[in-house]
Structures
1.
Amino acid sequence: MNISHDRLTLEMIDQSAEIRKWLDQFPGDRVPTAIDILMKLQFIRRDVYAEWLKEQLSAITNGPCALYAVRKFEEPLESYWDDEGNPPTRPAESQGSEELVQSVLGNLRKSGDEGFLDHPSIDTLKTRRVRNIVLIDDSIGSGQRVADFIDLLMKSKTLLSWWSYGLIQFHVVAYIRTHKAEERIRKYLPGSDHHQRVHRKSDKLHFVGYHNFDDDEFDLRWGANSTQILNLCDSVEAVPRWAQRGYGSVMSNQVFYHSVPDNTPGILWNCENGWLPLMPNRLFPTWLGDLMTGQADVQYADGNNPINRSLLAVLIAAQRGIRAKRSISRAIGLDPRVTEALVQKAQAAGFLNQSNRLTEVGKQTIWDSIGGYRIMEFDRSLYVPTKWCVGQGTVQPSGPIGATRRVQAESEASVLAEDGDAGQVSLDRTDARSAAPPLRVVTQLPSRPRVGDDPHGPKGERDK
């Protein structure tokens, strides 16, 4: 599936009265940084998320699956289940994630797939012999909400016993998640990972997602200006401290059309202390969706080179010397499964070899994607090491295009060889290289010792 994200452009920001009103709350010298925050945001449409979710659920084919939308409950619960083993009733107000789960589930059933159950009870789990429990969330920042949700599920002794005997497995499906969230969820799961355990808890927990990153790697999400962006978020005192960088200080830059994650910067959604956010109370405004209609994040180097940004990120990681798929996954912030598919695609297209090294086609693709000239073959036959040239740089001429390099080098070689035989150079033509050495290699007179005269040499300059 080709994933695309909507983005704000400078033209959109200039023509929006709502955005200008939001920008007016910042000091004049901070407005450029605030605009940079808006341009770094990625917006995921409902249909994109729904299609992605449907694709991931369809891949779980090992028997019937029970789907539960992860959410935070307003009133504290002792257990997710009532006395009869039924889940709690859904609230009357809109729940973005749950509505999408119901929509995706309805589409799966229309296609003839009856293996997915919508928030089933304990009796239904027992009757249908469900072995896969799927927990669905759009964004997981700290992992605390999912950990609390699993804890409420495990209040059922029946479910807990199934888990202990390895009869059920959890699949946490989230479009965005952090590595710390995975660690926290594993930590709070009942059970152990001891090597003597027959059913280790990590073997019964599976994560499925698209974006997967370290929450403290701000440069990957916010660019080279991340320090100024963090300082701006921290400087808005009207936003509570815990919300300035988002919940858990995750500083996510991805927003869904159906909901605004609380791990995004609080200046975007927090309404406290008179602050006027763009997305009040974490609700995506209609005007913002209308503003970005038709603006996608997927860009092509040219009309004949259909390579998306995710695949290009894999090639750039390989250019940096990153070979292992898991290391590439961490470097580009995508789920390992997504990264593996991208690597296979790059290998099939001839961009990478089987060792995940860039081919010549892959190098040229990166060069073309940044609008550079075609890389010419470098002529190394005329290369002279720097250490052979006293006080001079390498004689290999530099230039933006390889052809220019070769022309300049050949012209110099012809001059050097016109007074001498093949492989020899006239001494008249090498005066520049045999001239006085630079100051760094000029010998200095020895200075006198600290105590007494130096009987073995002349005195230093200071004693003359």
2.
Amino acid sequence: MSTPRKIGTMNESSLHRKLKFQYTGKGGKTEVAAGEYIADGRRKDGEYIEVQTGSFAPLKDKVKELAALSGVRIIHPVAVNKIIEVYKPGKPYGDLLYRRRSPLKGSRWNIFDALLSAPLLPLISGLTIEIILVDILEKRIKDGKGSWRRKGISLYDKELAACHDSILFKKPADYFRFIPFKKKEEFTSSLLAEREEINTDTARKALYVLTKMKIVKRKGKKRNAWVYVRS
């Protein structure tokens, strides 16, 4: 009998841990063996829970197995507001140096960042994806050990500050909500971006994933832009 593949919880953020217990619920269990894997949790009704803050690519094989066993729900938090606190080094951290609000604001469209490397994931039968729109408190330490992008400041933890809303995707047809056009109505990524008030890069990512899912299809090109219609 093979040993379940376990992802360690040592570096698990407070955000991940909070959502894991919250969605596993009363009567459920966390860190549950499921075939070759360890699921974040399993609800009382048998549904497995996976909390994923980043790309869904690492979950592709795991989700297939969990969905086949008893159904699985991916909980994907998206920060609509983020507060960043930077501390001096200490144990675990020292005095607060400063606090600021991040100018970046997430939305339901961030789901396509997660799906970009796993565009066929939503086609798996028995999978539910739930986007949680949240406020996050991110704690950082000015210790000179972080990435150059953060100028040496290390990310210490992420905490859940508030939950605003959730959006469920239980079947591929649920993704039609991202296409605000009628059947046979032609559109481009630029037109989608304009209609939904998102940037063109986000629209392109969304249409790449939705094309792979056969929610939309390419009809041809107009000048240098792909033209799409609902499938």
3.
Amino acid sequence: MDGLGDKFVTFAVSLAVGLLVGLERERHPLTKAGVRTFSLIALLGTLAALVADHLQSPWIIPAAAIAITVTLAGAYFVDSRTAADDSGTTTVTAALGVYLLGVIIFFGDWLLAVTLGVVMTTLLHLKPELQGISRRLTAQDTRSMLQFAILTAVVLPLLPNQNYGPYGVLNPFQMWLMVVLISGVSLAGYIAWRLTLEQGAHAWRANLLLTGLLGGLVSSTATTLVFARHAKTRTLSVAASLVVIVLANATMLVRVLLLTAVVAPKALAFVASSLVAAILLATPTLIVTWRRVGADTLRADEPYRNPTGLLVALAFSAGYGVVLLLSAWLSETLGKGALFGLATLAGLTDVDAITVSVLQLFRAGAVDGYATATAITLAVGANLVMKTLLVAFAGGAALGRSTASAFVGPLAGLAAGLAGFYTFA
């Protein structure tokens, strides 16, 4: 750090971080550290780093940290109102964190320190909301999050990031990264869906919308089948079930766009040309059906499987690898037509595997943007057709006819998108 002006700016940033966290802590009547204390602790962190740097004595930084921790912990211990529980644990931990933020600010990591300060303040402020969420999560929900952590933090770093096999398209790291991506999106939707179950009958309209949106993130196929059965058993009206089904499948289209943006951003414009039209043409039916819905109440049963189970992840990874190999082989030996046929067949059961497979081929230069968009569009179209048949089988003729009518718009949008970019290409 050079110059007196730089030093003043550095201490000003530390002061701002301390003030931010201290303002939040000041709200609690039993706290032993508020605005002034946290501001001083942040300044002390920067000062300790400055002195340690000048004297070439790095031990000063941990020594000051220990002194702060002991002082605050002692203040809570001697107070009879807080000595019997751990009510000061959060504040002591936050104080130590602010001290360390002051240290890293001295070493130039201002953006990181300010970002962490904001995150820390947000976590402290949202204590009631976080506790409520924690109480509403089940053991299965927690297990799902732990399994996702294993898939991401344990398995992924161990895999080699290089190509193997025929055509050089099998990359273990990239394949498992797709597993993490799909599982992460599904888990986020699953947990969010679980947190909406206790809203009660008064929130039935919000429940319908949230279930459709989140169901499309978790599994549009599972959502479609579950609510088809609800209509058949008269748990919900045909109109209410149709709203969830249409919304879940519209969300599936958005999900495909998000996967494209993450996996192969350069293909997004091609893929969006047909999927955006399908989403727009699904909207009128959704609005009309929504107006027909009565005061239905969602059942709080468990229609979704754990989206992060190891067997599910392994099955997806294996299926993804097989589709990737077949796609590469068909594209090279039989041309684009064979790839389109494979996409149509694969889309009858699952859109994710064929989508990420074709996107990987696009990234590798094996197919162009038009072929990529065509394959994905055909897979999505086949998936919607198959779901129409499933709804008619599982939900009855009335819901089947309504679903077929509702899907006419999205299917027309897909067809118009394909025709459009081939016409103007």
